[in-house]
DNA sequence: AACGCAAACAACCGCAAAGTA
DNA sequence: TTACTTTGCGGTTGTTTGCGT
């Protein structure tokens, strides 16, 4: 025996909503609210609809704070980043996009964004196979990985040492940790990672990049990375980094994997970097 | 103008979680 | 604690719209 239906399907209207139905539902909800019971609502509102259908229509279309129209580049970036981190949890992703619904985000992903990403990845593969396709950008190439530099000490980091987004006013950060790396989605001026004060910098692997641009020492402004460093004492004993946009032509969100923490032996270099970044 | 196809959007379905008696 | 109801979510399907031939 199957599950009982949520409503009497023979006596409810299905399919697209008419303008009259929209008005009836909107008027009722604005006057009375849901009353905590969507199932009973259609009858009270004089609608021959299933309660679930009413709820969906309201949440996805009629609510006054719904944003209609195309998605911005910024919204694209947030969706991509969060999808990368948490997968198809559309309601969570939508909660980071004011005015957007989970259905909207899901449809947008399935019809447009996924294809856009796939096309971009295909393009990246072409570049990896033929580096001459890369248009040079006017930033100096990053230095060799600091772990090979006598100035630096590479430290293996336990991801639990990282503090991600501890301040209320910061938003847009999402993080996860696995193995011996910490993953964060970073976006200019909107999200950051903080880490223990005894560590001066991080080795990062930007998942989209092609070597050598995807390895960055990220506490001193190497490699054309647009970043801002907060130094301990002002808001926290931790250090933080913002805005890991790997090339100067794009401001999007990219996932980076934090591979290792780094300390510096040279106190003067550390002080200089800190003062110039504040 | 008519047709076919693909994209975009709206709506439905079933499951699981949360709430309640 | 249990059984039942309601809500929320994500996957999927259906419908509409726009464009090319």
TrEMBL record:
Signal peptide: none annotated. InterPro entries: Homeodomain-like_sf (IPR009057), Myb_dom (IPR017930), SANT/Myb (IPR001005). GO terms for molecular function: DNA binding. It is found in: Nucleus. Residues 9-62, 63-117 form the HTH myb-type domain. SMART domains: SANT. SUPFAM superfamilies: Homeodomain-like (SSF46689). Keywords: DNA-binding, Nucleus, Repeat, Transcription, Transcription regulation. Residues 9-62, 63-113 form the Myb-like domain. Pfam families: Myb_DNA-binding (PF00249). GO terms for cellular component: nucleus. This is Transcription factor RAX3. It comes from Acorus calamus (Sweet flag). The lineage of its organism: Eukaryota, Viridiplantae, Streptophyta, Embryophyta, Tracheophyta.
């Amino acid at each position: 025996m199957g599950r009982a239906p949520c409503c009497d399907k023979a006596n409810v209207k299905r399919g697209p909503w008419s303008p009259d139905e929209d008005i009836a539902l909107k008027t009722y909800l604005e006057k009375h609210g849901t009353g905590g019971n969507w199932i009973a609502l259609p009858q009270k509102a004089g609608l021959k609809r299933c309660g679930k259908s009413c709820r969906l229509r309201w949440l996805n279309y009629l609510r006054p704070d719904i944003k209609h129209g195309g998605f911005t580049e910024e919204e694209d970036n947030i969706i991509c980043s969060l999808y990368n981190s948490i997968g198809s949890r559309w309601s969570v992703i939508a909660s980071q996009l004011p005015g957007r619904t989970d259905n909207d985000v899901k449809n947008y992903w399935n019809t447009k964004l996924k294809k856009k990403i796939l096309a971009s990845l295909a393009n990246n593969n072409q570049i990896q196979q033929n580096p001459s396709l890369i248009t040079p950008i006017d930033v100096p190439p990053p230095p060799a990985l600091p772990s090979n530099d006598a100035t630096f000490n590479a430290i293996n980091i336990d991801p639990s040492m990282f503090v991600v987004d501890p301040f209320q006013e910061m938003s847009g950060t999402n993080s996860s940790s696995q193995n011996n790396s910490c993953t964060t989605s970073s976006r200019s001026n909107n999200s950051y990672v903080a880490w223990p004060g005894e560590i001066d910098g991080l080795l990062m692997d930007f998942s989209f990049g092609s070597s050598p641009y995807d390895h960055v020492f990220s506490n001193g402004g190497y490699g054309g990375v647009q970043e801002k460093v907060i130094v301990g004492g002002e808001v926290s004993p931790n250090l933080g980094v913002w805005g890991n946009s790997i090339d100067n032509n794009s401001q999007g969100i990219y996932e980076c994997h934090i591979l290792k923490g780094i300390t510096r032996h040279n106190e003067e270099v550390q002080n200089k970097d800190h003062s110039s970044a504040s």
